[in-house]
Specification:
This protein has one domain. The N terminus and C terminus are likely disordered. The protein has 218 residues and is mainly beta. The strands form 2 sheets. Strands 2, 4, 5, 6, 7, 9, 10, 11, 12 and 13 form a 10-stranded antiparallel sheet that branches. Strands 1-3-8 form a 3-stranded antiparallel sheet. 14% of the residues lie in helices and 39% in strands.
Length: 218
């Protein structure tokens, strides 16, 4: 396995963070589905997504010229959530590899501290993260939107949760989460990201434009 520095540049606001890395790792199933499931809401969301978006979608892990990661929603493991203003359906996604690519190896975004823990222990869970498709419905207007959420736990959060971090983190509940959460548009482009410490938002992450000789567009 080889380590690659994350080729997208990020501007970290108001705090200093360790480097993010692109790392090659084996695909392992770490998702634990919460018990809250309302089949009617899940099916309505599934039909809406299928009517508006292709079955496979993508995340751009690095610069636009590189291949994107193709994903597919696993609707059998969808679950629901809500707060006073909106309902959500979260669906774990799994990578879809072309035939010529090793199906058990993928590139993923991790923290440098997690890579160090992996090197010390050999435990690949440290260098794993999880993406979900999120369908959000406004309770009053019934308007729906969807996007991709990627959860990147810190090494300490893996240990704090006895290596079960994802069951405690949803779109509407970040609990005591420690790490990063990235959001992507359905076309695969990075939207925004947030750092969390003990469940509290500790700063935002924005993507810088690649360096070019061209002036920025207005």
């Amino acid at each position: 396995m080889h380590t690659h520095f994350f080729k997208i540049s990020f501007r970290f606001i108001c705090f200093v963070l360790p480097f993010l890395l692109l790392y090659s790792c084996r695909t392992i199933d770490l998702e634990t589905v919460p018990e809250k499931r309302y089949p009617k809401e899940i099916e309505e969301s599934r039909q809406w997504v299928m009517a508006h978006y292709p079955e496979q979608f993508s995340i751009n892990l690095s610069k636009e010229t590189e291949p994107t990661m193709q994903l597919k929603a696993n609707w059998d493991r969808a679950f629901t959530g809500s707060d006073s203003k909106e309902k959500t359906v979260e669906i774990p996604v799994v990578p879809v590899f072309p035939p010529q690519v090793d199906r058990v190896v993928q590139r993923t975004i991790v923290l440098s501290e997690n890579v160090q823990k992996y090197k010390e222990t050999g435990d690949e869970r440290y260098i794993s993260n999880l993406s979900r498709l999120v369908v959000k419905t406004n309770i009053q207007s019934k308007e729906r939107i969807c996007f991709i959420m990627t959860i990147i736990p810190s090494a300490s959060y893996w240990e704090q949760t006895n290596f079960s971090p994802f069951s405690k983190v949803t779109y509407t509940d970040r609990a005591d989460f420690d790490g990063f959460i990235f959001f992507y548009h359905m076309n695969g482009e990075f939207s925004n990201g947030w750092s969390y410490k003990n469940g509290k938002n500790s700063g935002s992450i924005k993507m810088k434009q690649p360096d070019t000789n061209q002036p920025p567009q207005e």
